[in-house]
UniProtKB/TrEMBL annotation:
GO terms for molecular function: methyltransferase activity. This is Precorrin-3 methyltransferase. It comes from Aquabacter spiritensis. It comes from the Bacteria. InterPro entries: 4pyrrol_Mease, 4pyrrol_Methylase_sf, 4pyrrole_Mease_sub1, 4pyrrole_Mease_sub2, Cbl_synth_CobJ/CibH_dom, Precorrin_MeTrfase. Keywords: Cobalamin biosynthesis, Methyltransferase, S-adenosyl-L-methionine, Transferase. Pathway: Cofactor biosynthesis; adenosylcobalamin biosynthesis. Pfam families: TP_methylase. The keyword GTP-binding does not apply. Residues 5-213 form the Tetrapyrrole methylase domain. GO terms for biological process: cobalamin biosynthetic process; methylation.
Length: 250
């Protein structure tokens, strides 16, 4: 008799940004699987077992969690933000599709979470107030040429962009290349929001025009919002500016 598998979004990192549904699923789990820094956010009881792994081991992590659930355990796989946004829900589905037939019978529940682009947007106003899309700049799982194609198409179509995975220790040039591409399409004054660790004690939010955006303003904990030509900046005396994309656009 198989157990249960929860795929849980922990939110951006602050404890009060985790949903009650996610907290209840974590409470019910016997085994907790995830990338080490994400598991570090979760209090582990003596009767729970923690299985930490590296951030490039998503499929093997998914397979291990599914095997444990098939054996009858209640299992939680954790992701930062939302598990369906560049995270573990897709890896679990991929493992189920290619794995043993018994995995398809496991009681699976994906528990949504507050994702980074929403947390960053809330800090600065409403930059996602009109059409937007999310693009990962990591070329570990897709070619850089595909990323360039999608960046160009989205910017030309007037989408606000949420850029995930902007830099890493192994990917140092891609973000500057993305900004150079976008500078050839968008006005120089389009606001760029660098949102690092939104909601956590080490949060850092910066707003600069596209003409001044540089890769060294971001790290692995940063989500970047790129405005469209319609996105506006409202300056306020003594207060941070507001960034918003009007709901009415031609």
């Amino acid at each position: 008799m198989s157990g249960r598998l929860f795929v849980i979004g922990l939110g951006p990192g602050a404890a009060d940004q985790m949903t009650p549904e996610a907290a209840a699923a974590l409470e019910a789990a016997q085994d907790l699987f995830g990338y080490g820094p994400y598991l570090d956010r979760v209090p582990v009881r003596p009767d729970q077992t923690r299985h930490a792994s590296d951030n490039r081991e998503e499929i093997s992590r998914a397979a291990a969690a599914l095997s444990r659930a098939q054996a009858g355990a209640t299992v939680a796989v954790v992701s930062g933000g939302d598990p369906g946004v560049f995270a573990m829900a897709a890896a679990i589905c991929e493992a189920i599709e290619s794995g043993p037939p018994d995995w398809r019978a496991i009681d699976l529940q994906v528990v949504p979470g507050l994702t980074a682009m929403l947390a960053v947007a809330a800090r600065v106003g409403a930059p996602l107030g009109h059409d937007f899309c999310a693009i990962s700049l990591s070329d570990n799982l897709k070619p850089w040429a595909v990323i360039e194609l999608r960046l160009r198409a989205a910017a030309q179509a007037g989408f606000v962009l949420a850029l995930y995975n902007p830099v890493s220790r192994a990917r140092l040039w891609q973000l500057d290349a993305a900004f150079d591409l976008l500078r050839g399409i968008l006005p120089a004054g389009v606001p760029i929001v660098f949102g690092r660790a939104a909601g956590r004690p080490d949060e850092r939010i910066a707003i600069v025009p596209l003409s001044e955006a540089q890769a060294d303003m971001a790290d692995m904990a940063t989500c970047i919002l790129v405005g469209s030509a319609a996105t506006r900046l409202i300056h306020r005396p003594g207060l941070p500016p507001l960034v918003y994309s009007p709901r009415s656009q031609g």
